[in-house]
Design goal:
single chain; 43% helix; transmembrane; DUF3592 domain-containing protein; transmembrane helix; 166 residues; membrane
Length: 166
């Protein structure tokens, strides 16, 4: 059976709500999304850096205000300025990984922001896209993050194979 016939069969099973079909397509989705993410992480690690000036960094509310603080969501918030080839830019992206955290999980955002190396003068390293310098980050993926991405992409397929073919 070739991959197209197998995928069609799994699609029909997924339409019927059968576990094997749903698991197969969830595995394919995870593999595709994580492969793209890994490619992007590798690419951004090769981006050049320039010195920038951190204007502000913190955590801000995300979405509507809610009555119960524990239900409020938050995202990282930053503003920095930098120059590439004598052209000035403003950046707001901290990392390619955007986290939305609840009130009780804001420490994740704070831990992410702690990875930004800030000099005594407020200077930061800014990683920018050489083809589009207005796209920038203060943090790029490390080896641990890349390994996690590989595992998130591969584990669903491995577990699918083990359940249905071992």
């Amino acid at each position: 059976m070739n991959i197209l016939n197998y995928s069609q069969e799994m699609f029909e099973l997924a339409i019927e709500g059968r576990t094997q079909g749903v698991w197969y397509w969830a595995s394919v989705y995870a593999l595709v999304v994580c492969s793209y993410s890994l490619w992007f992480q590798i690419r951004t690690r090769k981006w050049p850096t320039t010195k920038g000036k951190l204007v502000q960094m913190g955590v801000k509310k995300f979405g509507a205000n809610v009555a119960v603080r524990a239900n409020q969501d938050y995202v990282g918030d930053a503003l920095y300025i930098y120059s590439v080839l004598n052209k000035h830019y403003e950046g707001s992206r901290i990392s390619p990984w955007v986290f939305v955290a609840s009130h009780n999980a804001r420490f994740i955002l704070e831990k992410q922001q702690a990875q930004v190396q800030i000099g005594a003068d407020g200077g930061v390293n800014v990683y920018y896209n050489p083809r589009n310098p207005k796209k920038s980050y203060l943090i790029v993926a490390g080896k641990t993050g890349m390994v996690i991405t590989i595992l998130l992409g591969a584990l669903p397929s491995i577990s699918y194979w083990m359940k249905y073919y071992v």
